[in-house]
Design goal:
Helix content: 55-70%
Number of strands: 7
Largest sheet: 3 strands, mixed
Shape: globular
Structural class: mainly alpha
Strand order of the largest sheet: 5-7-6
Distance between the termini: 21 Å
Strand content: under 5%
Number of domains: 3
């Protein structure tokens, strides 16, 4: 049998090599030390072609190193580890990490995009995820702030390079990014989210005297005024210059070899071998089935309507009176309500799991400048436990939401969804650090959708509207299979995409626009939810059939969670092996 100690050492050194190339990745996971060495927290990954090439060489070196460990001589969990990491090396699509299978198409990755682009991602990363434990972290905060201007410059250079290759993002995406930059630079350098976050996080820092803190604040304001904001302006100028050369079509198919890039992204997002055509057909069939189920549920609630949009209108008529987005008291009350719901959901799910994670979770409001483009999301705790997990809450979207919608979000994001799964994975001490840190969209989003189903099946919400609302949200995830493949593989126009999602999922005009724009800007990712959910439900049904009366849902949950996140095809193999 291969020496597990040597494998563990190799994996730690490999993870450290990736961490040095993409410093955001370990920070997001809360990894500050690997194999006794500090992980850099003072920079962001470069966006130039030579940076991407260097990252590819690191992935190649790791892949070659793994070949020294014959799989048939490894212990079972070590063999799983190799499968997980090899898939990551080939199909990762994690911030600036692009797997080896996408090497020939690296230039196809959009230089900018709304919400998840460099212009929004790095400011939010710095203000919300950067650690602030001691003086060195405060100094690293300043170093990272200085990097933002450089990365914005990288993005502008990539845009200029893409103008001559036919690889520009569509006009729709460029315009949305420009709008977002305009909102960001509205904040004056003397009163902005960068400074406010720094002041809040360093307020009780014991090794940072007030005079030094004040000096750093002045440095932040100077950096913003002299470098960061001008870099935002230059990126906006590059976008404006690129828009006339960009295509009006919104799908990847319009790019040279765009179909191959989309196939890579689908494999990365779904962790399956399903083609765009297969996913499209699955989406069409499942959409029809869910629409029938929704009509039955709506009749049971006494709603005398059958069209998806009419059902939504009937549900929306039960909402609370609209609250103005500028009502600060209402905003604070919503955050407090979500915090209470998290505590209640934790108690409610206890009977269905052998154990719950010990890590705490809080709620943070997304800055108002990002509310238009950034959706709710969950950020896991740091692996060392120093940083608590938090739920990024889009307060503007939820001010007048019904109770059932708030409950569904908590089940999806916290208990029994993302927080339960991701925090439990972090607490599996006998897994390599890499296994506890990395994620796969189809697994984590599939589990979160499964969490919504579990809450529905077991009546956790106690709200008669929850079942119908959960089906409505499932319909959106299902229709997104058709929408995403329609946009990027079937050559749908903006109008076709919008008409489909409005008519088949019953969305209002504004939300339909948001979903279509997101699918155009972040190809394939929306396919991970439903594909993942279907796999978890399929595996549970198989295990229940095989075990009969001996089936225990707690044991099933343990079996799919105890290995951490993994590709769906591997998960199926692991569960089948028992």
């Amino acid at each position: 049998m291969a020496d597990p100690e040597n494998l563990a050492h190799f994996l730690d050194r490999s993870f450290l090599a990736i961490a040095r190339e993409t410093p955001e990745f370990p920070t997001q996971m809360g990894v500050f030390e690997i194999a006794g060495e500090e992980v850099p927290q003072n920079s962001f990954a470069g966006l130039k072609p030579e940076d991407a090439d260097r990252r590819q060489r690191v992935l190649d070196d790791i892949k070659q190193g793994l070949e020294r460990f014959p799989r048939n001589r490894l212990a079972e969990e070590d063999a799983i580890t190799l499968e997980v990491i090899e898939f990551f090396l080939d199909y990762a699509y994690e911030r600036s990490i692009v797997g080896r299978a996408g090497r020939a198409l690296l230039d196809h990755d959009y230089a900018v995009r709304p919400s998840l682009g460099v212009q929004t991602d790095l400011p939010l990363f710095l203000t919300q995820l950067h650690p602030m434990r001691h003086r060195q972290d405060a100094e690293c905060y300043l170093a990272r702030l200085r990097c933002i201007g450089l990365r914005l410059q990288d993005a502008a250079e990539r845009l200029r390079a893409q103008r001559g290759t036919g690889l520009l993002p569509p006009q729709l995406i460029l315009g949305g990014t420009a709008d977002e930059i305009e909102q960001i630079v509205k904040e004056p350098a003397s009163d902005n989210s960068f400074t406010r976050a720094f002041l809040e996080k360093t307020q009780a820092m014991p090794d940072l005297p007030e005079t030094d803190r004040d000096h750093m604040v002045r440095e932040i304001e100077h950096e913003l005024a002299s470098n960061t904001y001008p870099a935002f302006d230059r990126l906006a100028e590059a976008i404006d210059a690129a828009i006339p050369d960009a295509g009006r079509a919104i799908g990847l198919w319009q790019l040279p070899e765009g179909e191959a890039w989309y196939a890579f992204l689908l494999r990365a997002a779904t962790t399956t071998s399903l083609s765009a055509d297969e996913i499209h057909e699955i989406g069409l069939e499942q959409t029809r089935l869910l629409q029938d189920e929704i009509r039955v549920a709506s009749r049971e609630m006494g709603l005398a309507v059958t069209e998806m949009a009419d059902i939504d209108d009937a549900l929306n008529s039960r909402r609370e009176p609209t609250v103005t987005e500028d009502d600060d008291d209402a905003r604070r009350a919503l955050v407090s309500e979500i915090e209470d719901r998290i505590l209640a959901s934790k108690a409610a799910v206890t009977p269905f799991f052998h154990r719950l994670p010990s890590r705490k979770v809080g709620v943070r409001a997304i800055p108002r400048f990002a509310e238009q483009h950034r959706n709710q999301s969950y950020q896991p705790p740091s692996l060392d436990g120093a940083r608590a997990a938090f739920f990024e809450l889009n307060v503007g979207q939820l001010l007048d939401a019904p109770a059932a919608e708030k409950a569904l979000l908590v089940y999806h994001e916290i208990f029994p969804g993302h927080h339960l799964q991701l925090s439990l994975a972090q607490e599996i001490d006998d897994l390599p650090l890499w296994r506890r840190a990395i994620t796969f969209d189809s697994y984590i989003e599939g589990w979160a959708k499964y969490a919504e189903v579990l809450a529905d099946e077991t009546g956790l919400s106690g709200d008669p509207e929850y079942h119908l609302l959960r089906l409505r949200r499932d319909l959106l995830s299902t229709a997104n299979l058709v929408l995403d493949t329609g946009i990027h593989a079937k050559r749908w126009t903006l109008d076709q995409a919008t008409d489909f999602i409005r008519s088949q999922a019953g969305l209002g005009a504004d939300f339909a626009t948001y979903i279509v724009h997101r699918s155009a800007a972040v190809p394939a990712q929306l396919c991970s939810y439903k594909i993942g959910l279907m796999k978890f439900l399929e595996l549970r049904a198989k295990v229940r059939t095989a075990q009969g009366d001996a089936f225990d849902v707690k044991d099933f949950h343990d079996s799919v969670l105890k290995h951490g996140a993994m590709p769906l095809e591997l998960l199926e193999t692991v569960i089948a092996a028992g």
